[in-house]
């Protein structure tokens, strides 16, 4: 479709930067504004931009809906599972300092990293699944 | 009358809040739903700027990404499935207007008792926030207090939030995918 | 030297804000959808660009300047593309441009 050339070229350049920025925000939640929620939303926005410009089929090939649903559940499981890890080492549920008794601050760091990863996965996958559920349906059924 | 922030940024905050009110009134009075959705995006953007002025960059970030970005796209997708214009109201809403005005007046009367803006002796500032800031400096090496409070000191609440998002996704999928499957079987039976 | 940079940055900031206001007036007063896109385009490129340049001059040579210039590049690429997409989709769906013969 030649009439979408400009949009295709520009999105081809922008989508990798958007996804990279989402990963940056996810990883830098400790040092600046950021964290799991923002990273998940930005990642979903990148995928949605790709689907809008290159077609829904191309978007579904890159991030299949089944994978999205599984990743959402995996994110929640990661979060709850980190809480269980606190229980397994002898502390409370979601007790991060107990994960590393010699260095409680390291335990906090790892725990926060794991739960933020879970949150980011869950939010990105849920937003993408909702978009896939809405898009591509004919109106006034 | 509450004390305004004394750094001179009231010249930016007050026009921003006035713009927020104007946008809200315009959204209510709009007949065209597409314009209302885009105005909601503008409202989210103005809220993000206002939160940034209140020194809350994490919240501003989330508000801009979710409200001005994703929410507008999803609402436009919904509009493509339903109608473009709101239906006109069927009767004069005097009863609901009276209830809303009375409740609003009661709430405004309640805010007259609240502590001044930025008051260091307010109950919200005395407990538990200073302890969180001190404990973050003492117990962790992470510099972003908001992330530590969100993920560690109040980790249960964040688990609940994430589960709510997940449940919302499941709800949408159940509603929309089940319907598509039923529509698909009906079309197969017709042909 | 300090005063020169300060004066230059304030000049850029004020001019950028003036262009943003001009773009806003254009959005309201111009007769047609396509002409109104010009107003929006001025706000995005000249307005935002001059404000960013003014802020970079005030920040000096630091990480903040690099971030500001990156934001400027991103905005210069994304906003005109969005304007183009809007105008193209309006043309495809048959919105006719305003001609001088129409009385407005």
Structure description:
- The complex is a heterotrimer of chains A (141), B (191) and C (104).
- Chain A is built from five helices and no strands.
- The mean pLDDT of chain A is 87.
- With 141 residues, chain A is mostly helical.
- Chain B is globular and about 60 Å long.
- Chain B has helices at 10-29, 33-53, 57-81, 94-111, 123-126, 129-139, 145-153, 155-190.
- In chain B, helix 1 (10-29) runs antiparallel to helix 2.
- With 191 residues, chain B is mostly helical.
- By secondary structure, chain C is an all-alpha fold.
- Chain C has one domain (2-92).
- In chain C, helix 1 runs antiparallel to helix 2 (33-59).
- The radius of gyration of chain C is 17 Å and the shape is elongated.
- The interface between A and B is large, with 51 and 45 residues.
Count of separate structural domains of chain A = 1
Which range best describes the helical content of chain C: under 10%, 10-25%, 25-40%, 40-55%, 55-70% or over 70%?
Answer: over 70%
Assembly status? heterotrimer
Largest sheet of chain C: none
Task: Give the overall shape of chain C.
Answer: elongated
Query: What are the segments of chain C in which pLDDT stays under 50 over at least 5 consecutive residues?
Result: none
Write down the secondary-structure element order of chain A: HHHHH
Radius of gyration of chain C: 17 Å
Name the biggest interface. A-B, 51 and 45 residues
Average pLDDT score of chain C: 88
Alpha-beta classification of chain A: mainly alpha
Number of strands of chain C: 0
Outline of this structure?
The complex is a heterotrimer of chains A (141), B (191) and C (104). By secondary structure, chain B is mainly α.
Label this structure with key terms.
heterotrimer, A: 141 residues, mainly alpha, 5 helices, 74% helix, B: 191 residues, Four Helix Bundle (Hemerythrin (Met), subunit A), 75% helix
């Amino acid at each position: 479709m030649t009439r979408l050339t400009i949009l295709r070229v520009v999105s081809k350049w922008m989508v990798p930067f958007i996804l990279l920025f989402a990963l940056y925000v996810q990883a830098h939640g400790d040092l600046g504004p950021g964290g799991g929620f923002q990273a998940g939303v930005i990642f979903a926005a990148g995928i949605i931009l790709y689907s809008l410009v290159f077609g829904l089929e191309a978007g579904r090939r890159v991030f299949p809906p089944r994978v999205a649903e599984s990743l959402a559940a995996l994110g929640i499981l990661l979060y709850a599972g980190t809480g269980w890890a606190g229980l397994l080492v002898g502390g409370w549920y979601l007790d991060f300092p107990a994960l590393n008794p010699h260095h409680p601050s390291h335990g906090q760091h790892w725990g926060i990293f794991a739960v933020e990863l879970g949150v980011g996965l869950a939010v990105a996958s849920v937003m993408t699944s909702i978009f896939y559920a809405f898009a591509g349906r004919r109106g006034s059924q | 009358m509450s004390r305004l922030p004394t750094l001179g940024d009231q010249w930016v905050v007050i026009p921003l809040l006035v713009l927020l009110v104007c946008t809200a009134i315009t959204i209510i009075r709009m007949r065209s739903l597409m314009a209302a959705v885009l105005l909601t995006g503008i409202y989210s953007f103005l809220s993000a700027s206002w939160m940034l002025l209140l020194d809350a960059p994490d919240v501003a970030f989330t508000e801009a990404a979710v409200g001005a970005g994703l929410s507008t796209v999803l609402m436009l997708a919904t509009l493509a499935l339903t109608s473009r214009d709101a239906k006109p109201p069927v009767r004069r809403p005097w009863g609901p207007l009276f209830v809303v005005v009375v409740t609003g007046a009661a709430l405004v009367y309640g805010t007259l008792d609240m502590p001044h803006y930025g008051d260091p002796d307010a109950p919200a500032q005395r407990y538990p926030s200073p302890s969180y800031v001190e404990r973050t400096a003492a117990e962790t090496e992470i510099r972003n207090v908001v992330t530590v409070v969100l993920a560690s000191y109040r980790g249960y609440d964040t688990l609940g939030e994430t589960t709510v998002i997940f449940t919302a996704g499941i709800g949408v999928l159940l509603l929309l995918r089940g319907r598509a499957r039923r529509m698909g079987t009906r079309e197969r039976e017709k042909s | 030297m300090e005063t020169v940079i300060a004066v230059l940055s304030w000049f850029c900031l004020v001019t950028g804000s003036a262009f943003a206001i001009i773009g806003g007036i254009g959005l309201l007063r111009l007769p047609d959808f396509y002409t109104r896109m010009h107003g929006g385009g001025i706000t995005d490129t000249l307005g935002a660009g001059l404000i960013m340049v003014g802020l970079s001059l005030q920040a000096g040579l630091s990480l903040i300047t690099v971030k500001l210039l990156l934001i400027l590049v991103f905005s210069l690429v994304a906003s005109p593309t969005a304007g183009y997409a809007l105008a193209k989709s309006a043309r495809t769906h048959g919105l006719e441009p305003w001609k001088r013969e129409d009385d407005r």
